[in-house]
Amino acid sequence: MTKLVGxxxxxCEGGVAPLNVDEAVALMQQLSETWxxxxxxxxxxxxFEFSVYSRTVAFANAVAWLATNEGHHPExxxxxxxxxxxxxxxxxxxxxxxxxxxxxxxDRMIEDYNYG
Length: 116
Fold this sequence. Notes:
Order of helices and strands: HEEHEEH
Strand order of the largest sheet: 1-2-4-3
CATH topology of the domain at 37-116: Gyrase A, domain 2
Largest sheet: 4 strands, antiparallel
Strand content: 15-25%
Shape: globular
Number of strands: 4
Helix content: 25-40%
Distance between the termini: 32 Å
């Protein structure tokens, strides 16, 4: 399996089944252990913590830039020192490989830059 971080999201307009629990669990192995898998593999999410609001917003903007480049957009919840990122693919009402590709790229971004 090609590493997720090196892949590019493919358009998903529906017509395919969402990943099942076993497929999602297998892909979770390529993400930081701080990502969590929702019940019935409906979504993945991770909460990021920051020391000041400006770093939280900088991170949220970086995630927005990444999502725009991938054509796959998460749900972001931004608060003073936290940003929760949740991925799911609306068109299939569940998870697709795109969700894991973007999560892996966020993991890489966190490793490469100091947002804390």
